[in-house]
Design a protein that fits this description.
This protein has one domain: Mog1/PsbP, alpha/beta/alpha sandwich (Protein Transport Mog1p, Chain A, 3-Layer(aba) Sandwich). Helix content is about 20%, strand content about 30%. It has 4 helices and 15 strands. Strands 1-9-10-13-14-8-5-4 form an 8-stranded mixed β-sheet, sandwiched between helices. Strands 2-3-15 form a 3-stranded antiparallel β-sheet. Strands 6-7 form a two-stranded antiparallel ribbon. It is globular and about 35 Å long. The N terminus is likely disordered.
Length: about 230
């Protein structure tokens, strides 16, 4: 993920915007799988193949604040997804589909009934929201864990604005948006920690940001299973 602070950046054309959006989707998908893979069964950080940001980008000041974000949405009729391998569950709208990804380490995708597929070459992305588990055996904070990675994602907490929040009684870290080529996109990343893992909930570009509320409410229902 490359961030360029350029106040004179012109408004992109439709074609150029589409290219940036597709590239940014790749960034979010790489977050989902590559970060987890780098810590699944090995302490060798050099295996982390996440290439999502360029270390030469300008820094966006981190704004660590703590707020309360409690959902007012009724989730009583939502479906429950349970991952017994990685010991967590969450709720999702009952008219959404769960898409199991080919690599279990990459987690799952959630796709709404209105999902419009985004393609990059021969790859068709699977949904608006991705959920995965990041191994954290040393019980590090989210920032400390990211700083152990061997690629440029270790600088995320310095480069991208994020907030420490209480979401339905759980402490989370919320990256509300990312900036690419001077444009702010409707992406989000919520990290929900437990003692030995961090659940990563990723939300990527949807026109007019119409899935933001579902994204936040799905993340707020994450539960760790003993």
């Amino acid at each position: 993920m490359e961030e360029t602070n350029n106040n004179s950046t012109p408004t992109p054309t439709k074609g150029s915007r589409t290219g940036v959006v597709v590239a940014f989707v790749v960034v979010i998908l790489v977050i989902t799988g590559a970060l987890w893979y780098s810590f699944s069964g090995t302490n060798d950080n050099t295996n982390n193949t996440n290439k999502v940001m360029n270390e030469n980008t300008n820094v966006t000041v981190n704004t660590n604040t703590t707020t309360n974000t409690n959902s007012a949405v009724d989730t009583s009729d939502w479906e429950t997804y349970t991952n017994e391998m990685y010991s967590y569950s969450f709720k999702y709208p009952n008219n959404w589909d769960v898409v199991e990804l080919s690599d279990p380490k990459a987690g799952i995708a959630l796709k709404s009934s209105e999902y419009q597929p985004i393609n990059s070459g021969s790859v068709e992305y699977s949904g608006e929201i991705y959920v995965s588990s990041l191994s954290n055996p040393e019980n590090l904070s989210a920032q400390e864990l990211f700083e152990t990675y061997s690629d440029s994602s270790r600088f995320w907490f310095e480069k991208y604005s994020n907030d420490d929040e209480i979401m339905n009684g759980k402490a989370v870290t919320y990256f509300r948006s990312f900036t690419e080529d001077g444009q702010e996109y409707s992406q989000g990343l919520i990290l929900v920690p437990s003692e030995d893992k961090i659940i990563s909930v990723n939300y990527y570009f949807v026109e007019d940001d119409i899935r933001r509320e579902e994204f936040e409410n799905i993340a707020s229902t994450v539960v760790f299973i003993d």
